[in-house]
Give the backbone structure.
Amino acid sequence: MRILIVGVGGVGGFIGSQINSTDLEIVYVARGKRLEFLKNNGLKVKSKLGERVIENLKIYDSIPKRIKFDVVICTVKLYDFDSFIKDFKNSNHEETIVLPFQNGIYSEQKLMEEFGEKKTYGAVAQISSFVDESESIIHKGSLATFFVGSMGDLQNDKLKIFCEKCKKSGLDIRLKSNIKEKIWEKFIFLSAYSGITTLTEKTIGEIFDSQKLKNLFIKAMRETYDLSKFFGVKFGSDPINYWLEKIKKMPYDMTSSMYIDYKKKKKLELDWLSGFIVNYSEKFGNDCSTHRLICRDILVK
């Protein structure tokens, strides 16, 4: 099987390093200084699960048009996802499975609009990882779990084989029939996590040390949970309680990629995260006061 990883940051680079030992043929797409670094120095990952350096990468600056891929793992930022879709369509990969490991729910919705529900797959990454100043990928903590599945009712044998091969390399990737629920489950946490860490400029541990900030974090999760009901998402149990237990086990100094981008004065995914919640909550008449505060105060900082 031939796999394309578009975006070699914290998530894409980590996945690539983990599945490098399989018989999968792995090709990468990166741009700018990231591309040059990877060409010259290889892919470097620092993790409690093991440090890796992968050299001699097959890497391009855009999606190769003449190479057919079985699976495309897309990890670009949300604000670059429309450009990815345009490049992908121009490459004419009709039988390719696209796994969109973006934050939020925008990418899956966009894929359904472009290709229909039957050809759309969802993907969720539960990992805290980022590229540091030395261009190495830093994986915080030990959580590194990935979920994939069809957004429709049909399951794909190719995706099943891909997951089985990845598991043999040690990557914790799970094929789920309820991927829509998993996407929203993460969004409930991620929308609060990215927004509150960036707003307060604090880590997850510092936020939960303060009762006031903890309550604000929980309220942000509640607003996203309430919005999920309008998208037909049903949970078997309360996702907020699920995340409160998970947060207890997270590293004290863990913080969001959006806060890291904020400190580096990079473009933010704010419009696709808290901004998405505000837009749709106002449409449905739901409370979104916390996410409105996040959007307003981050933009004026």
